[in-house]
Amino acid sequence: MASTYAYTADAVKAKFLVASSTPSQDETNILLLGETGVGKTTFVNAFANYLKFKTLSDAKSGDIEIFVSSKFTITDENYNNKVIKIGKADSNEQLENVSASSTQECRSYIFHLAKNKRIRLIDTPGIGDTRGIDQDKKNFENILNFISNFKFLNGICILLKPNNSRLNVVFRFYIQELLSNLHKNAKDNIAFCFTNSRGTFYRPGDTLPSLKKQLEEFKKRSTIEIKANKETMYCFDNESFRFLAAIKAGVSFTDTDEQSFSESWHKSADESSRLIKYIMTRPPHKIKHTLSLNNSRNIVTMLSKPLAEIEQLIQINIKLVKEKQKELENFNQITEEFKDKLNILQLKLEPIALEYPRTIMQHIVVQVAI
User: Fold this and answer.
1) 235 forms bridges with which residues in the sheet?
2) CA distance 195 to 320
3) Number of domains observed in the structure of the chain
4) Angle at 159 between CA 195 and CA 41, to 5 degrees
5) pLDDT tens, position by position, 177-189
6) Domain carrying residue 100
7) Which residue, 31, 14, 11, 52, is CA-closest to 272?
8) What's the pTM value of the predicted model, to 2 decimals?
9) Calpha distance 96→207 (Å, rounded)
10) In angstroms, rounded to a whole number, what is the distance separating the alpha carbons of residues 120 and 152?
11) End-to-end CA distance of the chain
12) Which residues sit opposite 27 in a β-bridge?
């Protein structure tokens, strides 16, 4: 049985929509992150069916699980294109604009396993939206707000394409932004999931060297090591799920096609089970650790502007004081100059008694102090 729990940005603080009569269950929370177009939405649908049906044959005869509405185009055996739509119309899934993130806001999807266990997949908007880096940062903020409703995360799955031989700007931003927003304790909960890996023989492909380089650079800066090995890497091919959806829609394929996709389904189902087993062995990452880190960062960010303004005012006041000091120094110098100028030269006549009358007089210069 599958359940869908959806939250929007306006209701992000709402409690989980779980009835009080629901029995206590072992719950595993898995956060899905990835670039726009990596296939997170298809992964959600495919992952649930990989765990439900061990083989493609079982899936063909069973009821397919659809959590997220999506559509894709497929070519049948007569080379005719056919648009396959699965699920009901959903305003949260932008199916027409392929350049923007298909998923607009975070949503969680729950499905149940044996022994009263349940898996919660948290789907998120893709990084690398054509609306720009500001939209990516907004999406990250929404992700952090959304997961604040949970107490813990068991797994953080980073979805990647296996054939990225070069890291582009979006990829680098995504990895660095993600790692800088997570508490260091989350490193033990990170797993890398490679989609569409049939073309790379169900291996990480050319993306692996680039990924390891990014993780090594991050380790040098932060001393935090995130492992990228077989234990933390999983390879899927969601084309087998699309094949199943096409069959359910009445598209015909050859026996060779079905055999090929049966193998793909088998490998993807095995990887799904291996991923769940690994995540269940991880110590749960407490959300409050990541939120505390980001709250501290937000406080620093909020204080940076007033502190900068205070620093600017201090510098202005220092400059004004120095200017006044210089004015006083100039004033003192002028005062001394004025004192010198207060000494006035005056002529003074002094009578001299002569023995006999004369017509010549002598003048004497006298300095008088005032």
Assistant:
1) 194
2) 64
3) 1
4) 75
5) 666 777 788 889 9
6) 2-283
7) 52
8) 0.72
9) 28
10) 12
11) 111
12) 118
Position 89 in a domain: yes
- Asked whether residue 227 is domain-assigned, the answer is yes
> Tell me, what's the pLDDT at 298?
56
Q: How many CA atoms lie within 13 A of 30 on its CB side?
A: 28
Burial of 3 (0-12, 13-18, 19+ CB in 10 A): middle
d(CA 177, CA 180): 5
SS3 25: coil
In 3D, which of 35, 367, 68 has the Cα closest to residue 245?
68
* DSSP state, residue 359: S
Total residue count of the chain as it appears in this document = 370
**DSSP labels, 182-215:** S-GGGGGGEEEEESSGGGGTSS-TTHHHHHHHHH
Contacts 24+ apart (CB under 8 A), 263-268: 264/198, 264/237, 264/239, 264/240, 265/50, 265/53, 265/55, 265/56, 265/59, 265/240, 265/241, 266/54, 266/55, 266/56, 267/202, 267/235, 267/237, 268/46, 268/50, 268/236, 268/237, 268/238, 268/240, 268/241
Mean pLDDT of the chain: 79
Answer yes or no: is 297 within a domain. Answer: no
Tokens 């990084």, residue? Answer: 127
Model confidence band, residue 143 (pLDDT cutoffs 50, 70, 90): confident
> Which pLDDT score is estimated for 330?
79
Show the beta-strand stretches assigned E in the chain: 2-6, 26-34, 70-75, 81-86, 107-112, 117-123, 152-153, 155-160, 190-194, 233-235, 285-286, 344-348, 364-368
- Answer whether residue 120 is part of any domain: yes
Of 132, 158, 131, nearest to 143 (Cα)? 158
Judged by DSSP in three states, 117 sits in: strand
For 269-296, b where at least 16 C-beta lie within 10 A, e where not — what string? bebbeebbeebeebebbbbeebeebbee
Torsion angle of alpha carbons 245, 196, 118, 63, nearest 10°?
Answer: 10
CATH number of residue 135's parent domain:
3.40.50.300
If DSSP codes are grouped into helix, strand and coil, which group holds residue 235?
A: strand
